[in-house]
Amino acid sequence: KYVGNGTAGHTIPHNLTVGGVATTPTIIIVKRLDADGGWRVQHKDSPVTHYLALDTNAAKVDSDIIFNDTAFNSTVFTIGTAGSINTDDKDYIAYCFTDIEGYSKAGMYIGNSNTEGTYVHTGFKVSWLMVKDRDNTGSWYIWDDKRSAHNEMNDRLVADLPAYEVADREVDFLYNGFKLRENNNAHNTSGREYIYLAFASQPFKYSNAK
C-alpha cells in the first residue's frame, strides 16, 4: 500500500525478496482505493513505455504518466502523474509478483493457431493461469484446476468483464507447464504475443511424481 504525491518519478518500495535476496517484480497491478479508476498493469514482457488495464480488454497503451516509462528494479517501481496511480495524498494498493522457481511465473508466448497449440514451460504443475493478448484487443482469460478438475481446462473466467463462467477456450495444465488446445484470438492466434501469469498447485519440490 502507498500514498500518491502527484509527482512524476515517484518511487514505491516493493520489498520483494526470494530467499532473503531483493528481487525484481515480473508483474505489478495497481488500484486506487478511494475513487473510481482502472487497474493499471505493468508486465516484464511489455514495453516499459506502455501499460495494460486489467479491467478492460484493450491492447497495451503508450503512456508516460502511468509507470513513468521506467522499468521496475529490485527495490522500487516508478510511477507517473495519472490519477489512477499517483494523485497527491490518495491511497493505492500494488500487487507485486515475482518469479519463484517451482511456484510462480510471468512470461510471454507466441500463438500458433493450432489445436496442438504452443507449449509453455513454467517448471511446475500449473494450478491457476491468466492470459492476455498484449498487442490486440482481447480479454484477460483465467483458468484454474479447482473449477476444471481435469484436462482439458475449459471453464474460463474473464477479469475485465462481469460475465459468468463459460466452458470454452481450452488449455491443458501439465506437470511442468501448459499447452493451448484451441485456435482463437483470445490466446492462440498464430504470430501473436500473449503475456501470462501462472501459479503452481504446490511448490515443485513437494509435488508428487507423474
Describe the 3D structure.
With 210 residues, the chain is mainly β. Helix content is 2%, strand content 41%. It is built from 1 helix and 18 strands. It has one helix at 83-86, and strands spanning 2-3, 10-13, 17-18, 21-22, 27-32, 40-43, 50-53, 61-62, 76-79, 91-97, 104-110, 119-121, 126-133, 141-144, 153-158, 166-174, 177-180, 193-200. Strands 11-18-13-14-15-16-17-12 form an 8-stranded antiparallel β-sheet, with no helix packed on it. Strands 1-10-5-6-7-8 form a 6-stranded antiparallel β-sheet. Strands 2-9 form a two-stranded antiparallel sheet. It is globular, with a radius of gyration of 17 Å. Mean pLDDT is 92; it is low at 206-210.
- Helix amount: under 10%
Radius of gyration (CA) equals: 17 Å
Global mean pLDDT: 92
Distance between the termini: 40 Å
Q: Would you report the number of β strands?
A: 18
Count of alpha and pi helical runs: 1
Q: What would the keywords be for this entry?
A:
210 residues, mainly beta, eight-stranded antiparallel beta sheet, six-stranded antiparallel beta sheet, 18 strands, disordered C terminus
Protein topology:
Blueprint: E1 2-3, E2 10-13, E3 17-18, E4 21-22, E5 27-32, E6 40-43, E7 50-53, E8 61-62, E9 76-79, H1 83-86, E10 91-97, E11 104-110, E12 119-121, E13 126-133, E14 141-144, E15 153-158, E16 166-174, E17 177-180, E18 193-200
Antiparallel strand pairs: 1-10, 2-9, 3-4, 5-6, 5-10, 6-7, 7-8, 11-18, 12-17, 13-14, 13-18, 14-15, 15-16, 16-17
